[in-house]
């Protein structure tokens, strides 16, 4: 159950990251992913990027500029507009972009780092949860655990511990039988 919940959150984080990359508004996608998990994830993978938002972000960061003749977005290094073939003036970093862009991209970088740390924590928790269930089965009831104890004692008595004659683990077999019926031993 815990694993499923963690996987769900992990899906939501990945969905949010992809949505952000595609220039989509992140919050609705997080909500969508928290409700429908993998479905939202697949949806954002196939969804087309919001071209205007991606372009606006590129303008903000300073990768693109607007052609003064046709108003299409072209690369800042371009000397000729690829849309209207107009010669472009040499690009000078506008003071405003220089002030705003680094803060913006820093914000984004910090956000990505936070997402990365959360994702890493979830992966670690998932691994821990998986290990603890396979090792001790803490979800077993008291009766089941007592039964397993009797089973292990029985296998030791007949010299079939830790491995049974067929090579299976005595612990595993005792657990399996006791979970089926606590009267197994
Ligand atoms: Zn142009």
List keywords for this structure.
185 residues; 64% helix; binds zinc ion; 3 domains; mainly alpha
Brief overview, please?
The protein has 185 residues and is mainly alpha-helical. The protein has helices at residues 2-21, 26-36, 38-46, 51-61, 95-135, 142-157, 170-180, and strands at 64-66, 73-75. Zinc ion binds at residues 67, 69-70, 72, 81, 83-84, 86.
Secondary-structure blueprint:
Layout: H1 2-21, H2 26-36, H3 38-46, H4 51-61, E1 64-66, E2 73-75, H5 95-135, H6 142-157, H7 170-180
Antiparallel strand pairs: 1-2
Helix pairs in contact: 1-2, 1-3, 1-5, 2-3, 6-7
This protein binds zinc ion.
Write a structural description:
There is one protein chain. The chain is mainly alpha-helical. The chain folds into three domains: 1-48 and 102-135, no CATH class; 50-92, no CATH class; 142-180, no CATH class. Helix content is 64%, strand content 3%. It contains seven helices and two strands. The protein has helices at residues 2-21, 26-36, 38-46, 51-61, 95-135, 142-157, 170-180, and strands spanning 64-66, 73-75. It has a two-stranded antiparallel sheet. Strand 1 (64-66) and strand 2 form a beta hairpin. Helix 2 (26-36) packs across helix 3 and helix 6 (142-157) crosses helix 7. Bound molecules: zinc ion. Zinc ion (ZN) binds at residues 67, 69-70, 72, 81, 83-84, 86.
